[in-house]
Amino acid sequence: MKTENLKNSLAQFYGSENLYRFNPLSKSVLSDGCKYLAEKAGAYWLFDAIDSHLVAQGLNENTEFVVAKLNKTGDKAELTLDDGNGLIWMTQKIPFTDFPLDSIKTYATYNGTAWTHMLTTEY
Predict the structure, then answer these.
(1) Where are the beta strands (DSSP E) in the chain?
(2) pLDDT for 84-93, tens place per residue?
(3) The pTM is what?
């Protein structure tokens, strides 16, 4: 899918009717928009990475809200997780990616047992 088509398609997601478990080893779920992004951009790896950092950082019901940002430069990228107010919890350098967008920001909220990942327009 071309970058502009993907951006335009992602802009159409508001709210989510369904939640999808994307990894049998995780209880976390994706909204309709995040599932679409993962499928069309081949980016299930992105949500696996976010999830692994959420667990490694010990973020849970005491955190409630996380902003995940992926910024790409060339074929490299940087993933950061923060609290939405500028407090960065972690940064990961990604040495290679073919992710089609220059950047993406998603939100994650703790649902009581795991994380729900959503596009910013779905929050």
Answers:
(1) 20-21, 29-30, 65-73, 76-82, 88-94, 103-110, 115-119
(2) 998 999 999 9
(3) 0.93
